[in-house]
Automatic annotation (TrEMBL):
Residues 1-21 are annotated as: Disordered. It comes from Rotaria sordida. Residues 51-185 form the SRA1/Sec31 domain. The lineage of its organism: Eukaryota, Metazoa, Spiralia, Gnathifera, Rotifera. One of its GO terms (biological process) is regulation of transcription by RNA polymerase II. This is SRA1/Sec31 domain-containing protein.
């Protein structure tokens, strides 16, 4: 066989198979997908129209809404009243002192934790934190004061999920404090 015979017998990559039998329903005619479909004057407000049901949002009942406070309501993690920033500061100093006394932690890490706490303290005093965030922070420090380190960590995760943008500037310091206290307790 020469090369000219070979090229005439080889099908193109996009050619239909030679043994394909097109039925009457199948046609090789192209359907133009970039053409507009003519608008039909249908009643779009009818209740039978299934596309109309997709335009209305689902109804949300008040009982289906879960608040953060309900997630935190158990005997060990919730205190009825909000801790003041001074009380939180005292708890923080006590926990930081525990870490300093352990001598297993680098001084730079302690400084970083202290800097991030100072950011939280400033934002609290300048009323930049919502009441919900203050309550959750209060719960975290209440748990730390009670030496419930794992519960404090769990509440910290809830805080990050619910108010991440509000606490982003200081939450890593609180997380690191909790993690170092967890290491210390193990």
């Amino acid at each position: 066989m020469n090369s000219s015979d070979k090229s005439s017998t080889i099908d193109g990559w996009n050619d239909p198979p030679a043994n394909l039998n097109l039925s009457e329903n199948m046609s090789t005619k192209r359907i133009l997908l970039n053409k507009r479909v003519p608008y039909t004057n249908q009643d779009l407000t009818s209740t039978n129209n299934s596309s109309n049901s997709l335009t209305t949002p689902p109804v949300c009942s008040p009982s289906s809404i879960i608040s953060t406070s309900s997630l935190l309501d158990n005997d060990t993690s919730t205190k009825d009243n909000l801790l003041t920033i001074e009380e939180i500061n005292e708890i923080f100093k006590k926990q930081l002192k525990k870490l300093e006394d352990s001598s297993n932690i680098e001084k730079k890490i302690l400084e970083d934790i202290n800097k991030k706490f100072q950011v939280m303290y400033d934002e609290w005093c300048q009323e930049k934190l919502s009441l919900n965030t203050k309550q959750i922070l209060s719960n975290i420090f209440h748990e730390l004061d009670s030496d419930h380190i794992q519960q404090a960590f769990d509440i910290h995760i809830i805080l990050v999920r619910n108010a991440g943008s509000e606490v982003i500037r200081f939450i890593v310091g609180i997380k690191r404090l909790i993690q170092e206290l967890q290491k210390l307790s193990n």
